[in-house]
Amino acid sequence: MATVAEQWVLVEMVQALYEAPAYHLILEGILILWIIRLLFSKTYKLQERSDLTVKEKEELIEEWQPEPLVPPVSKDHPALNYNIVSGPPSHNIVVNGKECINFASFNFLGLLDNPRLKAAALASLKKYGVGTCGPRGFYGTFDVHLDLEDRLAKFMKTEEAIIYSYGFATIASAIPAYSKRGDIVFVDKAACFAIQKGLQASRSDIKLFNHNDMDDLERLLKEQEIEDQKNPRKARVTRRFIVVEGLYMNTGTICPLPELIDDIDLISANMENSLASIGGFCCGRSFVIDHQRLSGQGYCFSASLPPLLAAAAIEALNIMEENPGIFAVLKEKCKRIHKALQGISGLKVVGESISPAFHLQLEESTGCRERDVKLLQEIVTQCMDRGIALTQARYLEKEEKYLPPPSIRVVVTVEQTEEELEKAATTISKVAQTVLL
Amino acid sequence: MVDPGGGAVCNGTLHNQSDHCHRKNCTRNGMVKEAQQNGNSNFYKPIVESFEEAPLHVMVFTYLGYGIGTLFGYLRDFLRNWGLEKCNAAIEREEQKDFVPLYQSFENFYTRNLYMRIRDNWNRPICSAPGPLFDVMERVSDDYNWTFRFTGRIIKDVINMGSYNFLGLAAKYDESMKTVKDVLETYGLGVGSTRHEMGTLDKHKELEDLVAKFLNVEAAMVFGMGFATNSMNIPALVGKGCLILSDELNHASLVLGARLSGATIRIFKHNNMQSLEKLLRDAVIYGQPRTRRAWKKILILVEGIYSMEGSIVRLSQIVALKKKYKAYLYVDEAHSIGSVGPTGRGVMEFFAMDPRDIDVFMGTFTKSFGASGGYIAGRKDLVDYLRAHSHSAAYATSMSPPIAEQIIRAMKFIMGLDGTTQGLQRVQQLAENTRYFRQRLSEMGFIIYGNEESPVVPLLLYMPAKVAAFARHLLKRKIGVVVVGFPATPLAEARARFCVSAAHTREMLDAVLEALDEMGDLLHVKYSRNRKSARPELYDETSFELED
């Protein structure tokens, strides 16, 4: 049956060919030839026009001139004429050859030259030497580190703590360990540079809210909620984080924690200030902290903290636990100097009255940042001549997102006596008067 | 034009004199011998690197092993989800259970099911200085590695093949460290301020001058952490509109620094000069993608010694390329400073190059100097710029004074400025130990990666179970080794990594080699098919006179 049908079709075809009108055959022929031509012609290549000859390529390579690796830095850039401290940066400091009282180093509890810390570090030096020669995963974990982590966790009343060997790297490694591309982070505008770098490394969406403005934060959260309802599938996989600083380094203010949240998931801190050591730590619940042991870059890929610094930090914790009274003393001193510095004509105090690190800004800016910086530098230099060591708060002007206005940083420590606080206040006041008028 | 890489440069492309085998040196069995000239054109130093491939059955079994592990992992997860098995990991708080989960459950799959089984081989706590012998705290786990407890016993005098102690300078206190003690007592520990503010001590200036002298460059700057040196200074040097060419196997700190800078990153195959040259040519000729504008600058990021492979960068060839295409070179000598080169000055000295050819020298003090921290050195204008614009100088606390003093002491020791030649002897001892160790291991039949002269020796184990068995058995024999697996290495290439130290005596190395020999037979990890014989190769001889 099939073959007959086939034959029949073939015969029909041949017959149709004979019976077709000429124009039809010619048209079909032309179409077939056109198809064959299209099949075999080359595709339209764009690069044929921009293919360079080898000679042209060599010329391009010869001609190309890159920018110099670094642009020249002017000779009187402040960083090239930094203050050199000879000897320990403790309460009585020798800066550029002048003896001053230290109001510039973050030595809040005065532990930088505490003999107990030095003794603990010395004992550790005798036993362990200096370096650890490896990251935590490869025989860089010493019993001192484990002790310090335990003590910190107990001190902060959390389940677990993890230490880093560099204060800056602590928060800059912690943020990208949890927040990835596609997650949302709500952060305060006055956050310090380390937090900014952590956020940049995490590649998440960043939503900034005005400094310490809880209403602004609420507005942003509500906006996010509306977004979520529009796209519930995306919302189910987007994590949200809020990052705030306890005491803002750039403004000296404290974040309104009770309004914000009732329980904190992760606390990150720096051992380089009160604990007079080096490094930083994060603490919180085990569920949260344990993750950093494998994904905190500054923890896994970097050598661990030298044991003598860890031993000093443990001793500092001991001191802090033994006399909790120093915190009240520090608070008193802060309030005192805060009050004494109010009312200096030309300078205003920025920061809370209980904050031990606050700023003195010009009441009225001259309009140009460079001139402001020069004026403040003049004040600082004259104060140093009179025995009060101060410094300007330094930023990388091109790198900061919200550059704070130029200011003088004033740091209060427990070791400063009442007379010294008075002297500082009067000196600053006098110098400000001479310079700014 | 003579190219100091053993090849001729013709029409701008690098031709290697030997055949095509050369280009595939990373994927074929066998050794790679290249002749390399230095500026004198009279001195040839053969570079011998090998990356032997494993036999096929080993790879099959490795993947099979991972497959079985994964299946069991799914099974256990299933049992845990349905409550049939106790869940030992920490879990989220009740109130936060309806939040989006903090960790992707797949991200943790590997950690929960594969890493957890063998995790007793990492994070082993020690309680002595990390010298050639150290004390490990004994710990046991009652619940299959979910938690550990210390038995209170200490395993004493374990031979240390894991710590980066190349010159043996990490040791218990002895009289030579007196200056460190003095500095600690005078200066204290913390600094409490940044370099720009009140944190620059006279100690830092002393250290920086000494580092510049050590490296024979104009100036240097030191930072408190090696990782941060990379991640905070690369963004200061390059930015948007610049191009970074980075080696495939660069360290996490270099990758982070490159990402934070905002520049475009292109990756070239590990130590492969053809791949690098192609990228350079394309970059200079075609410019930026889409806009075709010229790149502002091109920075090549390489390391001196790559810690997971043990290979040494082909510095002379990269410098030739860099000069031709006017790129800048950044060399991270974290592992190579102090450990290679006739007097321990790093890869620059190893290849006998001019310090002015390398634009940015970076290194760390953790490995050969027994301290912590990093440095960047080079021309004065570079260092001045970094003093003003480095993120670390403006925002991070400066280095602690006793650490700075330890580095000063160590550097003077190596340079011979303390009046003895012990420093130089240690460098030579390290080179001797390295050669001996590597030679004996390849004679035994293990697959060893990397350059003949690199003190970092990776020994390939491939299968995850063997990795664990290797480390555990060796600890029982009082030898501490470091094993590395995924994700620090490719999935199927887990390895043990030895760090030879100048402080290892011949007896210690022999003890280790004996144990490794037995281990190799027990675990069947002697995969090499290129066993070198113990007799010297005849064709290196210059005369063939019979010895009577």
Automatic annotation (TrEMBL), chain A:
Pathway: Sphingolipid metabolism; Lipid metabolism; sphingolipid metabolism. InterPro entries: Aminotransferase_I/II_large, AON_synthase_class-II, PyrdxlP-dep_Trfase, PyrdxlP-dep_Trfase_major, PyrdxlP-dep_Trfase_small. The chain crosses the membrane at residues 20-40, 161-179. It catalyses: dodecanoyl-CoA + L-serine + H(+) = 3-oxotetradecasphinganine + CO2 + CoA; L-serine + hexadecanoyl-CoA + H(+) = 3-oxosphinganine + CO2 + CoA; tetradecanoyl-CoA + L-serine + H(+) = 3-oxohexadecasphinganine + CO2 + CoA; octadecanoyl-CoA + L-serine + H(+) = 3-oxoeicosasphinganine + CO2 + CoA. Residues 99-261, 275-428 form the Aminotransferase class I/classII large domain. One of its GO terms (molecular function) is serine C-palmitoyltransferase activity. Its cofactor is pyridoxal 5'-phosphate. GO terms for biological process: ceramide biosynthetic process; sphingosine biosynthetic process. One of its GO terms (cellular component) is membrane. Its EC number is 2.3.1.50. Pfam families: Aminotran_1_2. Coiled coil: none annotated. Keywords: Acyltransferase, Lipid metabolism, Membrane, Pyridoxal phosphate, Sphingolipid metabolism, Transferase, Transmembrane, Transmembrane helix. Signal peptide: none annotated. It is an enzyme of class 2 (transferase). Belongs to the class-II pyridoxal-phosphate-dependent aminotransferase family. Component of the serine palmitoyltransferase multisubunit enzyme (SPT) that catalyzes the initial and rate-limiting step in sphingolipid biosynthesis by condensing L-serine and activated acyl-CoA (most commonly palmitoyl-CoA) to form long-chain bases. The SPT complex is also composed of SPTLC2 or SPTLC3 and SPTSSA or SPTSSB. Within this complex, the heterodimer with SPTLC2 or SPTLC3 forms the catalytic core. The composition of the serine palmitoyltransferase (SPT) complex determines the substrate preference. PANTHER family: CLASS II AMINOTRANSFERASE/8-AMINO-7-OXONONANOATE SYNTHASE (PTHR13693), SERINE PALMITOYLTRANSFERASE 1 (PTHR13693:SF2). This is Serine palmitoyltransferase 1. It comes from Physeter macrocephalus (Sperm whale).
UniProtKB/TrEMBL annotation, chain B:
It is an enzyme of class 2 (transferase). Pathway: Sphingolipid metabolism; Lipid metabolism; sphingolipid metabolism. Pfam families: Aminotran_1_2. Coiled coil: none annotated. GO terms for molecular function: pyridoxal phosphate binding; serine C-palmitoyltransferase activity. Its EC number is 2.3.1.50. Keywords: Acyltransferase, Endoplasmic reticulum, Lipid metabolism, Membrane, Pyridoxal phosphate, Sphingolipid metabolism, Transferase, Transmembrane, Transmembrane helix. Its main location: endoplasmic reticulum. The keyword Cell membrane does not apply. SUPFAM superfamilies: PLP-dependent transferases. Gene3D superfamilies: Aspartate Aminotransferase, domain 1 (3.90.1150.10), Type I PLP-dependent aspartate aminotransferase-like (Major domain) (3.40.640.10). Its cofactor is pyridoxal 5'-phosphate. GO terms for biological process: ceramide biosynthetic process; sphingosine biosynthetic process. The keyword Cell cycle does not apply. It is a single-pass membrane protein. PANTHER family: CLASS II AMINOTRANSFERASE/8-AMINO-7-OXONONANOATE SYNTHASE, SERINE PALMITOYLTRANSFERASE 3. This is serine C-palmitoyltransferase. The lineage of its organism: Eukaryota, Metazoa, Chordata, Craniata, Vertebrata.
